[in-house]
Amino acid sequence: MSGQPKGWEAIRAEVLRRIRARDWAPGEAIPNEADLAAEFGCARATVNRALRDLAAAGVLERRRKAGTRVALHPVRKATLDIPVTRAEVEARGQSYSFRLLQSEMALPPVPVALKLGLAPGSRLLHLRTLHLADGKPFLHEDRWLNPAALPQPLPDFAAISANEWLVTHVAYTSGDIAFSAENASDAEAAILGLPKGTALFVTERSTWSEAQPITAVRLAHAPGYRLHTLV
Amino acid sequence: MSGQPKGWEAIRAEVLRRIRARDWAPGEAIPNEADLAAEFGCARATVNRALRDLAAAGVLERRRKAGTRVALHPVRKATLDIPVTRAEVEARGQSYSFRLLQSEMALPPVPVALKLGLAPGSRLLHLRTLHLADGKPFLHEDRWLNPAALPQPLPDFAAISANEWLVTHVAYTSGDIAFSAENASDAEAAILGLPKGTALFVTERSTWSEAQPITAVRLAHAPGYRLHTLV
């Protein structure tokens, strides 16, 4: 690391070399950016770019006060896109349609009520929708919606899917998402036209707008579904 | 939007309001940052912060030359942590162990060879490892390693898992990752101690270091596994 000016990739490579060689051990603080810039003979911004990249990759941990340390447990990160179902089907080059199977006010199951932090006895709108790709079952959506937190009047969910309506009509939201695998129940296998016990890829989301619970949804995907991204 | 200086959250809320109200329609370019800053009576950096947040949320699309547009298909993004298996088990408060089931040079199946871009007939190191949490099967790892691209000598993979060794000994990598659900084959059900056909959460990764293919791995998780994150 001497001679002509370095690009940030070269700085990144040298920092990684030191980490791999345990010159800088897991958990150890590394020199500050100004010192590294002086040592490497480059701009501090170049060091910063390299360290940010390594932090994004989970190799370094950056804390406001404690400075930058070598990660004890390197964690790679992957970013997933979560599109609306219609866009997801269309991106596969298939034609999208959906059928509303059920729409009624009902008492949600306890896990749903707890997840959304609702008072006991709160009734929600229960929607079940089958989404189709080229006319074949693509996913079964089982959704609980909190009408009290939604703009009124609600649309006809047989004409616009709740998924799509929420994205375009409810303010910026936060929430959580979980992915798992489940054997299809008899009821879900029948809806999706699958043998009993077929392995389903399941996505569960709960969504808030400001501090208001909006919706909890379970998406059960027909076989062949893969969630794919670059790392 | 007038009166005292605005925080970036207020700018974000106003931008979102205009998008929801279709004052700014999907696909349409929005005014530039300088004009918005003048209109809102705030610093341009404040506008920038708000727009970046909305772009990260998939509501806006920012292109270097085309400027900032309202997304045609809003895409939420989620970031996943991909820790090494030992750290994942320990984070659950369980004790980690593993057993190397198989280690031999072999011809990979065609899909693996294609995925890694290997010449036909290339032999790879085939490792199969059972990872345990509190002594119970946690996941079955089926891995193909390209020894030509690895630092030598290779370690004893019965003493350190390939997963952990790669993270600490192979330079910064890129690759892809996919998640799906599969019914356990009879062989995999036996390894994991599960009934035949149990739904397994499957993670598949392929990894490169610079332009060299390093490894392709399939992780089949025992039931109860959930990949969870905030959105």
Describe the structure.
Two copies of one chain form a homodimer. Chain A has two domains: 63 residues, Arc Repressor Mutant, subunit A, CATH 1.10.10.10; 137 residues, Chorismate lyase. Helix content of chain A is 27%, strand content 36%. In chain A, a hairpin with a 3-residue loop joins strand 1 and strand 2. Chain A is elongated, with a radius of gyration of 24 Å. The longest helix of chain A has 13 residues. The model of chain A has no long low-confidence stretch (mean pLDDT 88). Chain A has 231 residues and is an alpha+beta fold. The first copy, chain A, has seven helices and ten strands. The interface between A and B is large, with 55 and 55 residues. Chains A, B: Pfam families: GntR, UTRA. Chains A, B: This is Transcriptional regulator, GntR family. Chains A, B: Keywords: DNA-binding, Transcription, Transcription regulation.
